[in-house]
Amino acid sequence: MWQNTTQVEWEWDLPIYEEFFRTVRAVNASLPRQRKLRVILADPPIDWSIVRSQAALASVAITREDYAVRAIRRDVLAQGRQALVIFGAGHLLRHPASSTQPSNGLVERLEQEDGVTVFTAIPEVRRDLTALDSTASSWPIPSLILLRGTSLGTAHWTTPDGRATPALQDQADAILFLGPPSMMTSARLSPALCADSVYMTMRSSRLAVLPPPPGAPMSPADLLRSSCGR
């Protein structure tokens, strides 16, 4: 299920995603029925047997935000329940990085309903937070750092073209601190997947639907093979 989504990249096949589902299954095995965790898939269904072009992919992918909001409203809010929503950080920001205007994204749409509050925690693993808050060097790992009314919350990132982003506290409620960038490591595909010809053919064919970024040294399919040491 984590391979068959609207996203063509192989990052979703990294071990952590499969481990997530296996961990939920293992935890549920020891819980009574009323306490079992339920995983709701919030990416729109896609039939890759008929997707052969970028336009066909885009026609489904463009519905991602709407589909996720409907799924959360139907399967969580309408049932009087709460949920841990796991999405890419870009879907959870209240303001785009280059604008002070609301994003009309996932969080804003959900909070349009009376009584609905979303608490957003954004992981930050690429930037050195000590540049914005000198106390970051003493934070425990991991830490959940609240932003509202703090020096970090009123700080801004700078975009590559030199513009200041909205204040961090206007984009999210907290930052999940996992350590400085120097401590971060990168996951790799499992050797079993790299050696699986059926998997490699499937993923390469889907990568071919999208053109490589301008100036990229190799195609996405070639990059996949390179990451597998081929």
Can you offer a commentary on this structure?
This protein has helices at 15-28, 54-61, 64-75, 89-92, 106-110, 168-171, 191-194, 197-207, 220-227, and strands at 121-124, 143-146, 174-177. The mean pLDDT is 90. It has a 3-stranded mixed sheet with strand order 1-3-2, with no helix packed on it. It has 230 residues and is mainly alpha-helical.
Question: Kindly, what is the distance between the CA atoms of the first and last residues, rounded to a whole number of angstroms?
Answer: 26 Å
Alpha-beta content class: mainly alpha
Radius of gyration: 20 Å
Helix content: 25-40%
Mean pLDDT comes to 90
* Largest sheet: spatial strand order: 1-3-2
Low-confidence stretches: none
Number of helices: 9
User: Roughly what fraction of the amino acids lie in strands?
Assistant: 5-15%
* Structure summary, number of beta strands: 3
* Major sheet summary line: 3 strands, mixed
State the order of secondary-structure elements, H for helix, E for strand.
HHHHHEEHEHHH
Form type: globular
Secondary structure elements and pairings:
Layout: H1 15-28, H2 54-61, H3 64-75, H4 89-92, H5 106-110, E1 121-124, E2 143-146, H6 168-171, E3 174-177, H7 191-194, H8 197-207, H9 220-227
Parallel strand pairs: 1-3
Antiparallel strand pairs: 2-3
Helix pairs in contact: 8-9
Question: Briefly, what is this?
Answer:
It contains 9 helices and 3 strands. By secondary structure, the chain is mainly alpha-helical.
List descriptors.
mainly alpha; 3-stranded mixed beta sheet; 30% helix; single chain; 3 strands; 230 residues
